[in-house]
Write the structure tokens for this entry.
Amino acid sequence: MPRSKKNLVLTIVLIILIAIAYFYSFDNGESENEKNNFLSEIDFGEVDKMEVTRGTSSTVLLREGDAWKVDGTKDFYVRESLASDLSEYLDRLTEADFELISENSEKQEIYHSNEENGSRVKWYEDGERVAEFVIGRLDSATMYHTYIGKPGSDKTYLAKDVDLTGLFLEEDWRSKVVFLNDKENIDKVRFQYPDKEFTLEKKYIDDGTFKWEGVEPNFFEVNNEEIDKVLNVMSKLIAIKIPEQNFEGTGLDKYSIIVEVSGDGFDNVVMIGNKDGKEGNDELYYAKRADSDNIYLINKNDRDALEVSIEELK
């Protein structure tokens, strides 16, 4: 073979080898990030129990359909919006690329990827622990990637395109939501006090508007603006605190105020008892739903909005 032709062949072979090496290196880098994700074999949808520990505080969450119940409580659940975010972002975590950032244990304090500074999370399926990891702080450069650690390892990874830190800073996972409904769907309100009881209904007019009327114990006209103050509370009632779950001293056995609102697909009843009276809580009142023994503390303004008379509503 002529030297020039031989050199050409060698040059072509060399180019091919360089190209293969380049693409292999590039592909290997991508594969390495995927390989680093030690959660990638887990289907978060199958996880039915999650334990979250931050500092000395530990909370166990149990999956019930799309909801997460706080274990060890009467009937408290993680608020709906947070439960939705947990499912979305933890699903995304199992598919994320994990870039190895450090193998220095001393840097874990900086990244919050150790148990002392981060949030330690354990996943379970049918009673068996299937994963354990530490959620660190956000990457300060992007504020969207999250540092991840693994207990017993000096390694710290950067989970790409997953913002988890804020989700796991909860001090109390119990939802403070008492009611959360669309105000426009409320069409009936019942008030019950120790000395009186009356009921209002929404009446639609031919032009598509509506007005509220008293229907029991007798008919009376209602000022829509006045009843709207009640509807604002009963459609979005959020507790200020969740107290000790003990009925003694709450006054919830007497129910000084009972208000019921109903509409398309829901019937909400709140019962309000005594003022708390403890230091710092003198403007808070005990409250509960009729269909749950969960005890809440609501603010005085919400409580007062629900104590009305027929004359005040006219």
